Amino acid sequence: xxxxKLIGCCAxxxxxxACGNGMPQYDATGTFETTEVLxxxxxxxxxxxxxxxxxxLLKAEQQVGLIDTVQLYLKKMQLEASMRSVEQQRPxxxxxxxxxxxxxxxxxxxxxxxxxxxxxxxxxxxxxQDAESQLIVLRRxxxxxxxxxxxxxxxxxxxxxxxxIQVAQVEDQLNxxxxxxxxxxxxxxxxxxAGELATIGKPLFKVADMDRVYLRAYITxxxxxxxxLGQQAKVFADYGNVEKEYPGExxxxxxxxxxxxxxxxTKDERANLVYAIKIRxxxxxxxxxxxxxxVRWE
Length: 298
Prior knowledge:
This protein is of the alpha+beta class.
């Protein structure tokens, strides 16, 4: 968003209601401007639906058009199928080690039996050692199998996460195919029509918040000492033979001075350097961008 500086191209203009000596009766003059947003396409494709007309009043996040989403939707379906395939490859660790655990349980019982026989003098030491060795081998196999299955499961988890991220990226691209107004405002200019081919960055329409407008005026360094943020002011707009007053509030004062624009009159015409200020005004529907206005401090 940015406030565009709109200054008329005519030479020095004196407001209606000027004093007899030819100087304006205002403390400062300027032009009205507002916050304008140039909405551009965030996706490439044919514009299937587009409902924007100059002068339309739009709500924030209101959808006004749609760019072709077929290819993105098919890509999303493909990625979701890949994710299901990854999930089906995930090993069931409990089932795959169940048989090995049963062998270990059997080997433990055999070891215990040979140990009891050996203690009773009915068995030999070699049988007991063989049973112990078999149990050690089976336990090591269980440890190795658990580790292998865990690594495989972790690898599939990472693979699934990667596919999930790709799905999220496609969903974001699909969302960007929906053309929306970023702010509530009035459509100033329309640059596109349904059926045209949109490219990323192509301007579609310009929208502006016309409810709150700003008078961009200029004051001299002598006036600067008497102006502060939040200060109330009387703003005047000239409608030809009719002058209308609006309450205003100073919302911005430039940090740097600049040369007086040719279209601006100050109380001291000898002043070469002035400071730009913005005065917020509630629009009653009559104020337009680029209109001249004047201000008097309360």
